[in-house]
Amino acid sequence: MHGTLLGREDAMTKPYAIAIGAVALGAALIAAGAGAQGPPTPMTPGQMPPEQRPRGPMPGGMHGQPQPPMRQMQMGQSAFAAIAEVVSILEFDPTTDWSKVDLERLRQHLIDMNEVVLHAAVKPMPVPGGLAMEITGPGRTAQAIRNMIVPHAAELDRMPWWSARTEPLGDGVRLTVIARDPSDTKAVARIRGLGFAGLLVQGGHHGPHHLAMAKGELPAAPQH
User: Is the dihedral of CA 32, 37, 39, 43 positive or negative?
Assistant: First the structure.
């Protein structure tokens, strides 16, 4: 009788044991599959055990190795962000000669950019093959226009699609941009469509120029 009861209990519990074992096996296979999908997410220095964290001083008294600039960060003000990015690049570069660094010059250039973009008055006039623009402003804005537009016209003139020149005005400059092939209606339409603001941002020299300015690698005369 006793053995019969034990046999019945074994028969009743055996299916549950099999089911539990199958669930455990499935979970193990899923975990193994997830691990095989790719390497684990790297830990930040703050998540690492102390003995695994990188050693060495960081600017500002922080610990760990200097990190490259984080372009996705927003600093809240464009000029501040531009200077912060340049400082980060300089600090990350072991060849930086700090005796030549001139961040004040970069700050003055950013003020010029702000004056020209936000405060200059622009009078566009279509001309054969392109566009002429009278760019003017009072006081500090007029000087900023001269500082930026004259050198930028030289950059535009180096491009293969158009030629550019400037003429002095009492309170600014006249910028004229003409398609190298005046019969190319698409190129002419592009110049006129871009207008002053669009032409101002043409070229890939802006970022490298700012860095060279901050590193003291440019002549003393105002450049853009």
Answer: negative
Three-state SS for 86-99 is: HHHHHHHCCCCCCC
| Percent of the chain that is helix, strand, coil (3-state, to 5) | 55, 15, 30
Please answer whether residues 121 and 145 qualify as being in contact, where contact means their C-beta atoms are separated by less than 8 angstroms. no
pLDDT tens profile 176-196: 999 999 999 999 999 999 999
CATH class, 104-214 region: alpha beta
Q: How far is CA 189 from CA 48, 127, 162, 196, in A?
A: 57, 12, 12, 13
C-alpha 84/C-alpha 91 separation (Å) is 11
Which helix (H) or strand (E) is 117 found in, with range? helix 103-119
Please tell me whether the overall predicted TM-score, pTM, comes out greater than 0.90 for this model.
Answer: no
pLDDT per residue over 111-159, tens digit each? 999 999 999 999 999 999 999 999 999 999 999 999 999 999 999 999 9
